[in-house]
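Field reference: sequence -> structure
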Amino acid sequence: MSANAPRPILLHADQEHSGLRLAVFLGLFAGLLLGFGVVLLALNAFAPPAIRDYRYFLSCVGAFPVALLLIWGLERLLKRVWHSGLSLELTPYGIVVHDQLGAKGQVPGSREERSSLAPNPYPLAPTLSWSAHFTQLNWYFRVSGYPRAGRERRVANKWLCLGTELNQDGTRLNVFTFMPPERAAAWIDNPRAAFHRLNPADVYETSPRARLGPPGRPTIPNQVLHSKDGRYWLAERRRWEQGMELTPADFTTFMDAALAHARPGPAAGAESPIVSTH
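Structure field:
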């Protein structure tokens, strides 16, 4: 990279990957054992005799806050140093998708291919180029009122899922995040972003029997696919299959980059409310 070229921005996707969740789960048991031992030693050393009679019970109770504190710190540390291997690189030329494990989220051209074009300080051909035409579709929904599956099960009920999909010559880049309503309002109320609201009750079975069953994704009814929400539900279905989750801060960075290379699209009936300026 030349000295004068702007530095790329690397956004790590899927921070709560399966390996990290397993490590945190195992860390909980280690934290409980450690917490039990620490509390027991403290009670033996400093508690009066009347309290020491209950030291084993108190150690079991006291182990929980110690364990929760330890796994909170462990999770924060692991998210900084242990990445999923899936990331987005924002460069002045476009977006490069890095998928080191060939896992979900892979899109055509996402492998690290050497560019054979003109001299370029970025050695990787972008998955999506800013200089070519692309469309963008934005949608959101509240993570409540339906049988949740996947990452949605670990998100607060009042939070919102915000998704965006960029499409360039059949190459689709599907990115999403979860935000509290007050933070998501900045995007939902932004007319340039044109976020469209989806109602999960339109496709999910909400009966008590469905809520008691195993979590899963529904089949989207044909009448929904042929409605005005159809293209957004198709994008949402692709999010289930290959969407890349970013943190709220990284999602904002991604959207800022996309909107910086976009303008309001043509009249109703076009594929997307946002298109590239090229």
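Note: The longest strand covers residues 160-168.
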